[in-house]
Amino acid sequence: MTVAKFPRHYGMDWLRVGAFALLILYHIAMVFADWNYHVKSAHAESWITVPMLLVNAWRLSLLFVVSGYASRALLARSRSPGDFAWGRSKRLALPLAFGIAVIVPPQPWAELVSKAGYQAGYWTFWTRDYFRFSTIGGLDLPSWNHLWFVAYLWLYTLMLALVVACLRLGRLQDGFDRLFGRWLGGIGVVLLPFAWYAFIHARWFAMAAETHALFGDGIAHISYLPAFLFGFGLAGSPAAMAAIRRWWPLGAVMALAGYGFVAGVELRWIGPFGPALYVRYGIAHAAEQWGAIVALIGLATRFLNRDHPARATLTEAVFPFYLVHQTIIVLVALWLMPAGLPFAAEFAILVAATVAGCAAFYYGGRRIRWLRPLIGLRLHPRPVRPALL
Asked: Acyltransferase domain: which residues (predicted)?
């Protein structure tokens, strides 16, 4: 694959910021939805899942697409695939290890306290039980919980570096780009990935649940690794980007139609839920998943591909925000449980506390030199645009 420099796509930066903001709001909503989560509010209602399904199908796939796109720029600035892999390992594996050891532990503690009657305090849990590599109250400890995304992204990055090195040795540097542009340089940019995801969700894994356990999580890998590679290829394919600019309205129609069907099933407008409906549900999920990604990239290219004074700070801050946000949500939700507050007050406090806590974590952490690498920042701040995750 030829690794050439290319202009920065500010729209992809804004998509990344927006996707992480949605993820944080989504996890706050998980406290109130009737889906399984670490700590649940007394106000949990089934209807909350319906608006959540508007983003559920594509929110994580979009992050992998954007991360793959950013990897192209990072690889272009690296001296070699090995240098690229080492740099990404420092920016991903180090925060992952720090997160598993320090940031994540309050989450299983809060879950055990609220669901399993765990009596010990947090310090006892962290020093005695968390690192026992055993199961307590149904939880496998230690855990990476929401940081599975970082682990998967790091794995895909190492795989990419290895493939790029092999392709260079095999004199096939441009093969991937030529094939990408040939197949995805027209309406295929919408239809081919949609067909892949429809096959996955309707037939191959039939809407199987992800485990985020790395091994035995086939549904996640066959969904997210292609999304990551698509983003990498898109960054080097003007033809595919032009196709997205042309066909994004079709993606938007697909996404809305897919969501309409999925929401109709959840609201019992469509049914009964049987094998035939399950296939249609998987196809609708795939239409929403890929249609939304095409539409969002097209809209970002059309309307958001411009810089702003706040962009550099926001693109740097989203990774530290991501690292700590769920721990803040879970602890605040646990603290609010006995208060008996109305739904609106509880939700507002969770949003305000999460934003304030994430901001304090980022602004405080970036001023401490030894802490910077542990929260995903460069050891030495540089007066340049920050790299994407």
From this structure: 10-362
Total number of domains constituting the chain: 1
DSSP character at residue 205: S
DSSP state of 136: E
Q: What is the domain range of residue 190?
A: 10-104+144-375
pLDDT per residue as tens, the chain (389 positions): 444 556 789 999 999 999 999 999 999 999 999 999 999 999 988 899 999 999 999 999 999 999 999 999 899 889 899 999 999 999 999 999 999 999 999 999 999 999 999 999 999 999 999 999 999 999 999 999 999 999 999 999 999 999 888 877 555 667 778 889 899 999 999 999 999 999 999 999 988 899 999 999 999 999 999 999 999 999 989 999 999 999 999 999 999 999 999 999 888 877 666 677 889 999 999 999 999 999 999 999 999 999 999 999 999 999 999 999 999 999 999 999 999 999 999 999 999 999 999 999 999 999 999 999 999 999 877 654 544 55
First to last CA, the chain: 21
Does any domain span residue 113?
A: no
Domain presence at residue 2: no
Residue 127 lies in a domain: no
Residue 142: cis peptide before it, omega within 30 degrees of 0: yes
Check if the beta carbon of residue 152 is closer than 8 Å to that of residue 220: yes
Tell me if 131 is assigned to some domain.
no
3-state secondary structure of 33: strand
What are all long-range contacts of 155-160, with beta carbons under 8 Å and residues at least 24 apart? Answer: 155/214, 156/64, 156/68, 156/224, 156/225, 156/228, 157/71, 157/84, 157/85, 157/88, 157/89, 157/92, 158/85, 158/88, 158/89, 159/225, 160/71, 160/75, 160/228, 160/229, 160/232
